[in-house]
Amino acid sequence: MTKDDCIFCKIGDREIPAEFLYRDDFVFAIRDIKPEAPVHILIIPFAHIVDLSSEPTERLHALGSLFSASTTLAKQLNVTESGYRLVVNQGPDSGQWVPHLHMHLLAGRPLSAIG
Ligand code: 5GP
Ligand code: ZN
């Protein structure tokens, strides 16, 4: 899948409308369309980075931005104390569905049963 037919690039470019719960120069955050917890946010780099096998400098910068945004979002959503889980899927065995790097922020219920 190229950038041209990437759903997350289209959302980031505002070709497809979605509410941004957070944005900075590098990443944006939207609600997952199929939530697995009361709070299920996707944090997504604007740049079309396919997955964790991307070029090291690009990857390190993207991951730093994703983690930094997740801390801000967790505070914004008031789940820092109650707790949350961050997930990045990599490749078919993980169930990665969208080939554009993203981080799931899950919260709002006990998550211990989710592997
Ligand atoms: P993955 O399995 O690739 O880590 O996760 C992709 C996630 O993106 C899934 O949880 C799926 O529900 C979500 N998703 C896929 N398409 C859309 C969309 O168009 N809008 C939103 N908000 N979420 C999407
Ligand atoms: Zn993309």
Topology at a glance:
Layout: H1 7-12, E1 22-23, E2 27-31, E3 39-45, H2 56-76, E4 84-87, E5 103-107
Antiparallel strand pairs: 1-2, 2-3, 3-5, 4-5
Bound molecules: guanosine-5'-monophosphate (5GP) and zinc ion (ZN).
Residues 3, 6, 8-9, 48, 100 line the site of zinc ion (ZN).
Keywords:
alpha+beta; binds guanosine-5'-monophosphate; 115 residues; five-stranded antiparallel beta sheet; HIT family, subunit A; binds zinc ion
Largest sheet descriptor: 5 strands, antiparallel
Structural class: alpha+beta
CATH class: Alpha Beta
Q: CATH fold name, please? A: HIT family, subunit A
**Unreliable stretches:** none
Strand content: 15-25%
Count of strand segments: 5
Q: Please give the CATH architecture.
A: 2-Layer Sandwich
Mean pLDDT rating = 95
Helix content: 10-25%
CATH-wise, what's the superfamily? HIT-like
Number of domains: 1
Strand order of the largest sheet: 1-2-3-5-4
Number of helices: 2
Give the SSE string.
Answer: HEEEHEE
Estimate the global geometry from the Cα principal axes: globular
| Rg (CA only) | 14 Å
CA-to-CA gap between the ends? 28 Å
What does this structure look like?
By secondary structure, this protein is of the alpha+beta class. The chain has a single domain (3-107), classed as HIT family, subunit A, CATH 3.30.428.10. The chain has helices spanning 7-12, 56-76, and strands at residues 22-23, 27-31, 39-45, 84-87, 103-107. The chain starts with 6 loop residues before the first helix and ends in an 8-residue tail after the last strand. The model has no long low-confidence stretch (mean pLDDT 95). Guanosine-5'-monophosphate is lined by residues 7, 18, 30-34, 42, 89, 95-98.
